[in-house]
Automatic annotation (TrEMBL):
Sequence intervals crossing the membrane: none
Protein's name in the database: Tail fiber domain-containing protein
Pfam families found in the cross-reference section: Peptidase_S74
Domain Peptidase S74 intervals: 73-165
Signal peptide coordinates: none
Top-level division of the source organism's lineage: Bacteria
Amino acid sequence: NFADGTNRQILNLSSVSGSRKAVLHADGGVLCRAGMNNLSLLRTGYFIDYESGPISLYIDSTRMGEIQLSATSDRLLKKEIEYLSDMVGADPSANALNEVLQWNPATFKYKKRSIIPESDTHLGFIANDLVEVSPECVKGKGLEDGYDENNTAEAYSLDEIAMIA
C-alpha cells in the first residue's frame, strides 16, 4: 500500500527477447483522468487504436483524435526523387500556386464535444473547403449531419505532409 492508503497498480515493463519492443502489463486497465462514460472502478480507460488506419486515441468511448507523427523530409532519407519541373511538358509550379491561392484561411474554435472542451481561437484551414481544390491534402470521408460526437473517425483531417510537399 502507498502512503495515502491506496493499493495501486504496479506496471511491469519487460523487453521482448531479440528486439527493442517493450510490453506493458497492466491488470484491469490504466488509470487516467475521469471521462464522461465513467463506468469502471478504475475511473477511466484509454486506449490507442493502431490496427486500422491512422493511430487514434480514445478516452472511454470518446475518440479524442489522431496521433500525428512528423515525417522527415531530408534528401538523404529518400530515393528515386523525380522533380515535376524536370518532366517534359509539365509546369507544376503554375498549377500548384493556383491551387494554394484557392485555399481560404479561417479563424475558428473547435466545438465542445463530450469530454473535449471548446477550444481557443485557431488560425488554419477547413478540410471540407480543401477537399474540392486539393483532395490529396485531405484525409477521411467527412462527417454527415447527426454524427456521433464520441466517434469522429470519419471526419476530414488535413494531411500536413501533402500540404507542405
